[in-house]
Amino acid sequence: MNLIKYPARMLWAAKSGLIASGMLAAAAVFAQANIPVVQIQADKVTAKMPPTFYGLMTEEINYSYEGGLYGELIRNRTFKANASEATFWSATGNAAISLDPTTPLNEALNTSLKLEATQASKDAPAGIANGGYWGIPLRERGGSLHASFYAKAASGFNGTLTVAIRSADGKTTFASAKVGGLTSEWKKYEAALKPSPRSPSKNNVFTITTTAPGTIWFQQVSLFPPTYKNRANGARADISQLLAEAQPKFLRFPGGNYVEGDNFKERFDWKKTIGPIEQRAGHRSCWGYWSTDGFGLPEFLGWCEDLGMEPVLAVFAGYTLKHDYVKAGPELEPYVQEAMEEIEYVTGDAATTRWGAQRAKDGHPAPLKLRYVEIGNEDWFDKSGSYDGRFAQFYDAIKAKYPQLKLISTVGNEHPESQRVHSRTPDLVDEHYYRSEEETESQAFIYDARDRSNPTKIFVGEWATRVGSPTPNMAGALGDAAWMCGMERNADIVLMHCYAPLFVNVSDLGAGRSMQWKSDLIGYDALTSYGSPSYHAQKIFSRHQGDEVLATAAQNLPTYSWRQAGKKKNGVEQPATTREVKSLFYSATRDSRSGKIIVKIVNRAEVPQEVQLEISGVKSVAAKGTATVLKADNRNATNTLEEPNKVVPVTETVSGLGTGFTRTFPPCSITVLELDVK
Ligand code: AHR
Predict the structure, then answer these.
(1) Which of 249, 558, 665, 677 has the fewest C-beta atoms lying within 10 Å of its C-beta?
(2) What distance in Å separates the CA atoms of residue 636 and residue 478, rounded to the nearest whole number?
(3) CA separation for the pair 430, 398 (Å, rounded)
(4) H or E stretch including 550?
(5) CATH of the domain spanning 89-224, picked from 3.40.47.10, 2.60.120.260, 3.20.20.450, 2.40.50.840
(6) Which ranges in 430-491 belong to alpha helices (H)?
(7) 629-664 burial by CB neighbour count: b if 16+ within 10 A, else e?
């Protein structure tokens, strides 16, 4: 007798009534073909998908704000980037420039740029020039730019100043305006510059020149192009547009390491980042460069408002990157109060609370909805064991006043039990994962096995498949998509997540230059920006989130062999190991309003992969549906400034769908299928 061994999927299908058991023999072809099967139980919802599942994580790294999202075009506008010289500024004509700490604008901007123009004339103007963050961009139909600066002059100066944008070679003046009436007192001057370049360019400089000799001091020299949604002191439009298209639901800010700083003085001291920008002293970012704090707490809130994101606020918790810390107790109390006031700044009523009123004054009259507060960042680095006590002190104070807030511990389950918080039960823990493609894929099912009885939920507050530099390539996107499938399947315990880092200025790559961390979601220079394949993977997942997670199962998933070189253990070389890693990943959700079932399939293999999809618990699935596919010829394929759209998703109508169907998924592909269901 010929014995056919039916695969579990066939028995499952027969049991679900999808096929009659009499059909099993006819379907034996599947058993022999052994193709992967993904089953979706549409009548079994395993979790409500949290509406804030997909978000953004941000900090001042890789020139993310300065030279990135922040609209400001002038580099070192407050002359504080370097205490000994006017970095990024030069003198033009017959003049000398120097820093002058004896002529400050105010306590915050406690220095100025002194221009000594001894021989300026009509034929030989003298002044100052700034080349921006690797260029001053001019776009066709880029609109009017707003120049502003504080200035004062030594007595005897009665000339005018010319504010201009010129090509770096000095041959072309794209726009200029005259400003006059300088006195011996500080005063703010403003001018509109209206260039109409025939082609986009970035090899330009911003200049302020005079044709009359004299001594002039400058502070906060600023140049803004039109910003996203025309916000004053706002964000760069093209980058904001990329973010908006990904439909993020929350923003974790202000870091990352940036919240902690290298030391107490350099932490994110939020009160120094609010109010008028000329009152913001700025501080050194732990990523090695100066932040003017022009993009401060009010601007983060504006970013949330403009993109419809909920803030996830990380508060400084008394521990810095260089391992300085304040132990729990009275010494920590000022930092706890600082955090309480910060929460009030974000959420407080403008009429009845001090910090709510300040927020309104800073341009945000309506309180923001805040549900999550994170206490510190990556406190597993604190080997003193102080985190449990510090967390508890913040927890008790915040919960007493804001019992509705969910508090996040920064020590996740990927760290030893002994390092985690035990004296309180955090509402969530923040887990961070930076890995290779193989590592990500080999761990794509870890959350399926997590203990469901743990009351503490998970926030994956930083993660990335770090393949590709400066931005991830298709291999990174495949790993990311595999990982996102895993998080989606487990949205009952993983409540939200965000990729990191978000941004990189790609103008001058390398340590100490425009990039401190490789594999960042979005790249840009002064003029243009692009989304990496990983960005597009995020985007298509986020835009097809659904609100119910459906039960799924799979059989016959293909694998590939991952050879890992042996590591040294206790000085002894270990042999290389090879393990089998799955190469097909999946998740299924439903949009309960439209009834559509959304199936995500990731084929990381470099060959096409046939998959049998079986959907139970529905009467029928329409033969026609939609497929959004992100794919590449090979896993090294990527996007760049020059080729920003090499790897982008394509959406098309597809047919041949049903409650049971076979579909071939292209090599190196990420597919989102939308099924119309009855
Ligand atoms: O994302 C880059 C850095 O990685 C973050 O600042 C830090 O939290 C993590 O170590």
Answers:
(1) 558
(2) 11
(3) 18
(4) strand 548-555
(5) 2.60.120.260
(6) 437-442, 474-489
(7) bbbbeebebbbebeebebbbbeeeebeebbbbbebe
* Segment (H or E) for 400: helix 387-401
pLDDT at 510: 73
Q: Are 446 and 458 in contact (CB under 8 A)?
A: no
**Cα separation, 470 vs 61, whole angstroms:** 13
Question: Does the beta carbon of 461 sit less than 6 angstroms from any atom of ligand 1?
Answer: no
Under 8 Å between Cβ of 644 and 68: no
**Token pair belonging to 438:** 């193989």
Interatomic CA distance for residues 472 and 476, integer angstroms: 5
SS3 for 325? strand
SS3 408: strand
CA-angle at 507, arms to 503 and 510, nearest 5°:
80
- Closest protein CA for atom 5 of ligand 1: 256
Indicate the top mutation candidate among 58, 59, 63 to test ligand 1's pocket, ranked by most ligand atoms within 8 A of CB. Answer: 59
Query: Average pLDDT, whole number, for the chain?
Result: 94
Q: What does the block give as tokens for 44?
A: 């079994």
Residue 557 gets the label, from left (phi > 0), alpha (psi -120 to 50) or beta, of beta
Asked if the model's pLDDT at residue 565 lies above 50, the reply is: yes
The verdict on the CB of residue 259 being under 6 Å from ligand 1 is no
Q: What letter would DSSP give residue 52?
A: T
Residues 149-160 have pLDDT tens digits of 999 999 999 999
Which whole-number Å values give the CA distances from 383 to 228, 322, 417, 471, 487, in the listed order? Answer: 43, 12, 14, 33, 30
Listed by start position, the domains of the chain span 1-33, 89-224
Phi-psi region of 465 (alpha: psi -120 to 50; beta: other; left: phi over 0): beta
Q: 606 by DSSP, 3-state: which?
A: coil
- Dihedral pair phi/psi, residue 313, rounded to 5°: -90, 120
CA-462 nearest atom, ligand 1: 1
Q: 646-676: per-residue pLDDT in tens? A: 999 999 999 999 999 999 999 999 999 999 9
Q: What is the DSSP string of 65-92?
A: IIIIIB----TTTTS-S-SSS-TTEEEE
Atom of ligand 1 nearest to the CA of 501: 1
Burial grade of 275 (CB within 10 A; 0-12, 13-18, 19 or more): middle
Which residues make Cβ contacts (< 8 Å) with residue 441, sequence separation at least 6?
478, 479, 482, 483, 581, 582, 583, 585, 604
Q: Residue 587: enclosing H or E segment and its boundaries? A: strand 584-590
DSSP string spanning 126-157? EEEEE-BTTB--B-TT---EEEEEEEEE-TT-
Of all residues in the chain, the percent with pLDDT exceeding 90 is 93
- Rounded to the nearest 10°, the torsion over CA 196, 202, 208, 212 is -80
